[in-house]
Automatic annotation (TrEMBL):
Residue ranges of the TM segments: 12-34, 122-149, 165-183, 188-206, 226-255, 267-286
Native species: Paraglaciecola aquimarina
EC number: 2.1.1.-, 3.4.23.43
Domain Prepilin type IV endopeptidase peptidase: residue ranges: 143-251
Keywords, comma-separated and alphabetical: Cell inner membrane, Cell membrane, Hydrolase, Membrane, Methyltransferase, Multifunctional enzyme, Protease, Transferase, Transmembrane, Transmembrane helix
Name this polypeptide is given: Prepilin leader peptidase/N-methyltransferase
Protein topology in the membrane: Multi-pass membrane protein
Length: 295
């Protein structure tokens, strides 16, 4: 193990390559998390509701007969024929290409999103590792990349940003700020507080003016977490980037798909993307802005 770390410390190429391969494997696991975590949350909410109703009516709570369902069990199967996915069918990207994007048994199509999540996880993690190099900053940025990718796809699918992901990202950002790989602890704490307060205040202002909810509490927590990583100084960059990208993509979706303008669009993916870009290139964005404002 020491030899591997020594090789990564001595060779940036080996370090980036190691992160790329590792992140391919992690990307395969992230596909599981993206699919299963919302279902696990729904089951937990249902169990809590059943228990509450039983307490209110002074009746025994119904026994939950659902099978075990977590990030490990049951084993992955084809949703159509229930064929259990074997190890050689679960190799990131390669298995999908070998099977030509179809189940080996029933030939039902396998979504291209699975290899795309794996590939994007590997590429973005390798880029973060290359940018920061071997050390605490590099490993922390890779971990943040994994969490942000997971949150992005869950929010796209379900309009949820689970506390199980946003809160660890927040606490990890605050804890690593002790060593200041990105920002100082003071800047991280202020960034987290301002990040939450920024969207919280916008939420209530919009609700008081329109009577509608413009975003969810998960967005507040995600921006707070990002503030802990990039510091309060770069929060305007995150907000500006996410707003611009969100507006452009939102208009494209409404135009191309013809969706109702009142239909909610998840904001988490734009926050996550802007936060990741700011973590890596925040100083460059600020410098570019001032060059444009003060040529």
């Amino acid at each position: 193990m020491f030899d591997i770390f020594q090789l990564m410390a001595d060779s940036s190429i080996f370090f980036v390559s190691f992160i790329f391969v590792l992140s391919l494997l992690i990307g395969s696991f992230l596909n599981v998390v993206i699919y299963r975590l919302p279902i696990m949350m729904q089951r937990a909410w249902q169990a809590e509701c059943d228990e509450y109703i039983a307490q209110q009516h002074s009746t025994p709570a119904a026994i939950n007969q659902q099978d075990v369902f977590n990030l490990v069990k049951p084993d992955s199967t084809c949703p159509k024929c229930q064929h259990e996915i074997r190890a050689w069918e679960n190799i990131p990207i390669l298995s999908w290409l070998w099977l030509k994007g179809k189940c080996s048994q029933c030939r039902a199509p396998i979504s291209i999103r699975y290899p795309m999540v794996e590939l994007s996880t590997a590429v973005l993690s390798a880029l973060a590792a290359w940018h920061f190099g071997f050390g605490l900053a590099g490993f922390a940025a890779v971990l943040a990349t994994w969490l942000l990718i997971t949150m992005t796809f869950i929010d796209v699918d379900t309009m949820l940003l689970p506390d199980q992901l946003t809160l660890p990202l927040l606490w990890i950002g605050l804890l690593i700020s002790i060593s200041s790989p990105f920002v100082s602890t003071q800047d991280a704490v202020i960034g987290a507080a301002l990040g939450y307060f920024c969207l919280w205040s916008l939420y209530w202002a919009f609700k008081l003016l329109t009577g509608k909810e413009g975003m969810g509490y998960g967005d507040f927590k995600l921006l707070a977490a990002l503030g802990a990583w990039v510091g309060w100084q770069h929060l305007p960059v995150v907000v500006l980037l996410s707003s611009i990208v969100g507006a452009i993509v939102g208009l494209m979706i409404l135009t191309v798909q013809g969706k109702d303008k009142s239909q909610p669009i998840p904001f988490g993916p734009y926050l996550a993307s802007a936060g990741w870009l700011t973590l890596l290139f925040g100083d460059w964005f600020v410098e570019l802005y001032w060059q444009w404002v003060l040529p």
